[in-house]
């Protein structure tokens, strides 16, 4: 079966990557320069660099190892994650710098712009989780580029039309990525694939590697949520770190409890532990700007873990049966539902702290419009991306070759001996 896949990668992937990378190099050569100021939002390089490294570790190591849970898709899960991440980050830097280019003639790059670009990339990696194993690397690169474009467009609309703060618009990446991925995987649904693909399985070894990705994400999530908080107010930044940690801690305990309760044999489910313990970090990240008390973060983490675990247990199979939407990594349960919970928590906490009735009504209208705009843009871009990827020119893998590294990677030890 290998000859059927070699032309796909040789004739599509290599030219696409070389074309894109050459284009990026040309753009960077003429329009991008390193920021000469050593200060980054009032914080010097040595203070901000560790936070940048934390976000970098989450994007590369966290998401990369998290995608290795499939028994025959470990090479692709981790390798394609790195490929997509670096391509999407380069593209995000360009898109985020368009305004700077328009007014200054140059796009200035510093650590903060790299962090924002990687957070845009994280949204794309969330989306790709829904299609993991059912696409080839050409699909994944195109999905990432289009998803980042849609996310940056949504961010610009929120900040321009609704005057949403940059932190709040960027942290909607979980909701945007989840709904974008669901729409694309729904459009790309394969008829006759049944409830499960033949090779969509995991074992103890791949589960251990995937758990390592969860550990990386869990450890560095406080930096992810707090990195863009105003550095001029250390109290707010400390509060964001503490709130995220408490939400993660509570969601880990709650997810373990609910996993045991939902198991017919009363045992822990590894998949629940891998993803649902992160639900608190997702939910509190969306509402991080209005969470000021420890108990608020803990309640958010508690409810997020319950929603995520129950969603994992029942929602994935029902989504497949009812809507023919095969969500490989259950992004709706891991990011979508906790993200919506975080939006609701932001709404309630902001209303609670608002003394003026008129201001409260105005905020409610704008906050609801923020969610509707985000979902509308994500679904629209998902439809466009899905229809584009349905073209046979991209040569999607056959059903029996889905979730299989041998379709894309060399395995010399499996070669026929002469």
Give the SSE layout.
Layout: H1 2-31, E1 32-34, E2 39-40, E3 43-44, H2 45-66, H3 74-96, H4 98-104, E4 107-109, H5 111-131, H6 137-161, H7 166-170, H8 173-187, H9 204-226, H10 234-262, H11 270-276, H12 279-286, H13 294-323, H14 331-352, H15 357-389
Parallel strand pairs: 1-4
Antiparallel strand pairs: 2-3
Helix pairs in contact: 1-3, 2-3, 2-5, 2-9, 3-5, 3-6, 5-6, 5-8, 6-15, 8-14, 8-15, 9-10, 9-11, 9-12, 10-12, 10-13, 11-13, 12-13, 12-14, 13-14, 14-15
Structure, explained:
- The two termini are 19 Å apart.
- The longest helix is centred in the C-terminal third of the chain and has 33 residues, at 357-389.
- Helix 2 runs antiparallel to helix 9.
- A two-stranded parallel sheet has the order 1-4. Strands 2-3 form a two-stranded antiparallel ribbon.
- It has 418 residues and is mainly α.
- It is 72% helix and 2% strand.
- The radius of gyration is 21 Å and the shape is globular.
